[in-house]
Amino acid sequence: MKLFLIGYMGCGKSSLGRRLAKRLEIDFVDMDKSIEAEAEMTIPQIFATEGEVSFRKREREMITKLGSTEGDRIIATGGGAPCREGNLELINSFGSSIYLKVPPKILVERLCRHKEKRPLITGKSDEEVAEFVNRSLAERETYYNRASMVIDCAGRSDEYIVEHLYNFLKYNR
Length: 173
Fold this sequence. Notes:
173 residues; single chain; Rossmann fold; five-stranded parallel β-sheet; 55% helix
């Protein structure tokens, strides 16, 4: 079983993925961290030196690499990974995708606290971040909503979401 967690940056893919993998006693992989390790650069460095197009190519290659590797695992994708033509279909060919849906207001609050770690919003004011999130989330949701499963995370605790996913996976393996 391979489960790809998808959703906008700041929705909790990595933190929830780690907790779910621990609960299921399977491997967890953060796709962005894997890309950084392979490139020997951080995501912001990749964006700065190679550009977004090169980074998106690396994402697709990593989807293929992680998807085709043996063994069960939870994979947290980057926020834009499923939004490139054919990537969500590729993800679903290897396993299942779950969209962690978080309201824009909550995403903006989370992202404004850690802008320097996110190349797409570094240097933006809080108002610019809000405008960027609302615009790009509206574009990306077309892809996100095509996931195998959508979890509405609004008003739900991390514990509730992990338990919900755990029960779903436990009975649908």
